[in-house]
Design goal:
- The chain has 497 residues and is an alpha+beta fold.
- Among the domains are: 59 residues; 127 residues, 3-layer Sandwich (Rieske Iron-sulfur Protein).
- Strands 14-20-19-18-17-16-15 form a seven-stranded antiparallel beta sheet. A four-stranded antiparallel beta sheet has the order 4-5-6-11, with no helix packed on it.
- Strand 9 and strand 10 form a beta hairpin.
- Helix 1 runs antiparallel to helix 2 and helix 9 packs antiparallel against helix 10.
- The longest helix is centred in the first third of the chain and has 33 residues.
Length: 497
């Protein structure tokens, strides 16, 4: 399920290999020393407070001693022995055939993560498949690299903006000449990319063909031909991620990414985990507004076998307003139960920001250690296939094993939902009851990322796989019916995509 990542062991980074973890000795040695010191400190402080604490909480002394002893044991099982969590079993296969006609348009409008910035090397081209399309992504060559491409002079003459050296560029993958894939054998030449088939060069600023090695006269003739251009997608780099702007009607970005954590742009990269899910893109972020599912799905402790420890969750969710209307704020607080009794004065709150349809940030401020941020992204690969990534960053002085624990804990909880998501049929008008959480409010907020339903699905269907147009056509028809239903109702309150 997790893609194997080849990371430089000298950096002390870690990778996920099919739901088990491997860690490098550089961080393991420090982790051993830390957990031993932690266990001694906890045991010393707890031994004098056992009787008092047991009277306050109702726990027996032996139960408190077991709790103290379980902390270092849990740490070893979870981190150093790389024991997969119970929810890390291979996800259940998708037994149902999703009905796209009951789903919202498959590709919402917004910024989507398509790569890690560090993975896109200057002067190299890579294949990319997102939003039902084949694309090519590359980073323009440094200014010191010789180039035979005449893009710079052509850009100046035509008024097209120039692209700075070492900028990330994303274009449609197929050459408009004879359809060769620019990502397979294509060569980066300055800020242009050359087709591997006939050597045509397309500039990064607007996709115009600026060089045909064997026919310069044809270049001038094609300059004004829109069909001779490769589509260039709007791209930005943010918190170590390459983001692509998608809009079903090709509108420019309606909002930009905020700087939520000033001073946290250039922190240490600690790893990425990737998983694919068979569901609609809206299903994953909607999970945060579904308060009632936390206890049935996420109450088990993250370490298998620790049945005596349980999570107790509480949450709040609010949509942004004004300039933050494309964002939501979610606060999740967890407390712990030991043999069914609440451990007093032990809790942790995570503050989570949803940004647009497919980006989520989680910031963990750890006393005496520093900050760890996890960027969670959900990017549609196809109408009902999502690529979910968790990328971890930390202040340079935070021990790496702390990042590992946080990322593994998040993934354990995330994977608990995957079998449900992959076998879930989207319900247009769910039977929401008191206590479910603000699910309908979330859906009303999320609607802003869809264009006119019929237009949106029609636009996306042109780029989908051969089996997708028929499904998307059905989705368009259903979307028109839903839109008509919304117009007949007051403000469309009965419509809950």
């Amino acid at each position: 399920m997790f893609r194997d990542l080849n990371l430089d062991p000298r950096l002390g980074e870690f990778c996920y290999e099919r739901r088990t973890t491997t860690f490098h000795p550089s961080s393991t040695l420090f982790g051993h020393a830390f957990v031993i010191a932690l266990a001694v400190a906890i045991a010393a402080s707890a031994s004098g407070a056992v009787l008092v604490a047991s009277n306050d909480s109702g726990l027996q002394p032996w139960q408190w001693l077991l709790l103290v002893a379980s902390l270092p044991a849990a740490y070893y099982l979870f981190v150093f022995l790389s024991v997969p969590a119970a929810s890390s079993k291979p996800p259940a296969p998708t037994y149902i055939k999703h009905d796209l006609s009951k789903c919202p348009p498959p590709f919402p409008n917004g910024w989507f993560k398509v790569a890690n910035s560090r993975d896109i090397k200057a002067g190299q081209a890579y294949p990319l498949r997102v939003l039902g399309r084949d694309l090519v992504i590359y980073r323009t060559a440094p200014s010191t690299t010789p180039s035979s491409c005449s893009s710079s002079s052509t850009s100046s003459a035509s008024g097209a903006p120039s692209v700075p050296p070492c900028s990330v560029v994303i274009m449609d993958a197929f050459c408009p000449h004879l359809g060769a894939n620019l990502a397979v054998g294509g060569r980066v030449d300055g800020d242009c990319i050359r087709c591997p088939f006939h050597g045509w060069a397309f500039r990064a600023s607007d996709g115009t063909c600026v060089d045909i090695p064997y026919s310069q006269q044809s270049v001038d003739n094609l300059a004004s031909n829109a069909n001779a251009k490769a589509k260039v997608w709007q791209v930005m780099e943010w918190h170590g991620a390459v983001l692509l702007w998608h809009h079903a009607l090709n509108a420019p970005p309606a909002w930009q990414l905020p700087d939520l954590y000033p001073g946290f742009q250039h922190t240490r990269y600690d790893g990425t985990a990737e998983i694919y899910i068979n569901c609609h893109v809206q299903t994953v972020p909607e999970n945060g507004s579904d308060f009632a599912h936390f206890q049935p799905v996420h109450s088990d402790f993250i370490v298998p076998g620790f049945f005596f420890l349980k999570h107790l969750w509480s949450s709040s969710w609010e949509p942004g307003t004004g300039d933050r209307s494309h964002m939501t704020d979610l606060c999740i607080t967890t407390q712990f139960q030991f043999f069914g009794k609440l451990i007093p004065k032990v809790s942790y709150s995570a503050y989570i920001h949803q940004i647009g349809p497919g980006l989520v940030t989680l910031m963990f401020s750890i006393p005496l250690l520093g900050r760890v941020m996890v960027l969670e992204s959900v990017t549609p690969v196809a109408p009902l296939t999502q690529q979910a990534q968790h990328t971890c960053f930390a202040d340079s002085w935070v021990p790496r094993f702390v990042s590992k624990i946080i990322l593994m804990a998040l993934l354990t909880q995330f994977e608990a939902d995957v079998p449900i998501w992959s076998n879930l049929q989207h319900t247009q008008r769910p039977m929401v009851v008191k206590g479910d959480g603000p699910i309908l409010r979330f859906r009303r907020w999320y609607r802003q990322f869809y264009s006119d339903p019929a237009s949106s699905v029609s636009q996306d269907s042109s780029a989908a796989d051969t089996q997708q147009p028929a499904l998307l056509s059905a989705s368009a028809s259903a979307s028109q019916e839903v839109s008509a239903s919304a117009n007949e109702s007051k403000a469309g309150e009965d419509l809950a995509w």
